[in-house]
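Please, structure for the following, as tokens.
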Amino acid sequence: MKRLRGRSRGALVAAAAMCVVAAQPGLPGGTALAGTARAADQPTPYAIDPRATRVEGAETTSTAESLQPGVTYSDSIEPGKRLVYRLDLDEAANAYVSATAAPELDSRVAYGDELTVRMEDSRGKECDSAQARILPPGVYPRPLTASASRTLDGTEDEACREAGPYHVIVERKSKPTSTQEAWKLELRYLSEPKLTGAGPTEAAENWPTASPEPPSDDPERREGGAGFADAVELREGQWTAAIDPGESLFYRVPVDWGQQLFTSADLGGSDGNGVVSGAMSLAVYNPARGLVDSVGSMSYSGKRKSLSTEPAPPVDYANRFSSIADERAMRFAGWYYVRVSLSPEVGEKFGHKPHDLTLRVTVDGEAKDGPGYDGSAGEFDVPDDSSLGQGPAGAEDNATMTLVAAGGIGTGTVLVLGLGGWVLVARRREAGR
């Protein structure tokens, strides 16, 4: 009997609820409830945001489609391809564009397969670039995420500071031995407003580097999401989940100004034989999906093993001026994302079954006031009305569920009767066997 994942147990009810939502006027057709796009029989390599707007990357800058801030887009990219998108930027806001590629679980990847994101001004001057690579010892299909930005940091260099058209270039490199099918692609564009006054120009040189004592409270169950869009919220504490070989789970943690984030993950013991190098990877991304840290060198022989990310500085606007990449990434408050991926080889040697995962999350330090944005901070802030367990689209999902409830005696009654009918038919079929 196949195991129904905790993230899919509500699929029947959610699907019916979506029918009610579809009947409500004025709701966008792409609206979906978080955590429902999960198959019961196999893990999902990566769940593209169901609300994503379809876009087609161009071959040249002259034909590139324009992206809008605060919007998630979907595309696909083939090996050796170079896709171009356009941004129309003013002279004040900082811009961040991330790309997440999703190789299929049954595909082949090779050491050095790479996704690159680069941002250029109208003259072709590079503002920023980042790469996400498949590296040993964990050479297996999993989501690759990279982010590039145009940051107005007060330096003397005038490149990438003017208002006008900018371009984001996404490139994929794959070895001939890798599967040559297109990777699904998810793009996210965020705009950070300027400050109301003069801001800092240098990063702090001294900050706490010692990891605090890990949480000792009793662990709670919290199944992860299949992508950034349905990442499940965690607070400080210990959390358990089940992870299938080849699967990637996504979580998000609210981290405010002045706070530090510490994460670690344990893979539980299992019967079997052999050793898997790079059995599990643990990565942390900032609100713009820029990489903070990634570790994946775990060697697993069936005994419980642990991974921990390196300490990062407290969230501070001035971190963007650091010369160290993981320190620069801690530049704003908001939702920080945690990704855990389990190698398919674990299934080959220790069983194609759910394996026990324990996550420990510590958010250290008192929250401080932000730097003073000229306008709404948007996603670069920790919302006051967050609810534990909801995905990033929690507010929209709440509105959706309100509409479902508002159907009341009308559409709601039809929904309940419909569910009852499905159950009755299933029971009759079972009785007739």
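Residues 1-39, 393-433 have pLDDT under 50 and may be disordered. The CA atoms of residues 93 and 193 lie 5 Å apart.
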